[in-house]
């Protein structure tokens, strides 16, 4: 919504047993800038906390990443309907 767009999605796939991220998908405005964080996370064999705890400015497109990561941990304050 920060860009005036009202649609888009951020999806993260995670191996619950090993606590490792397996996939990172973004569709919508700003996706090309945001997906680089996902690529880096996959390259470094990241866990969900590696993407949940960095500081994300507000308002920013990056908040979509922390929102989906908080959703994986059942901590989302704005869960998807």
From TrEMBL:
UniProt cross-references to SUPFAM superfamilies, sorted A to Z: FAD/NAD-linked reductases, dimerisation (C-terminal) domain (SSF55424)
Ranges where the Pyridine nucleotide-disulphide oxidoreductase dimerisation domain occurs: 2-66
Name the UniProt record assigns to this protein: Pyridine nucleotide-disulphide oxidoreductase dimerisation domain-containing protein
Organism: Virgibacillus necropolis
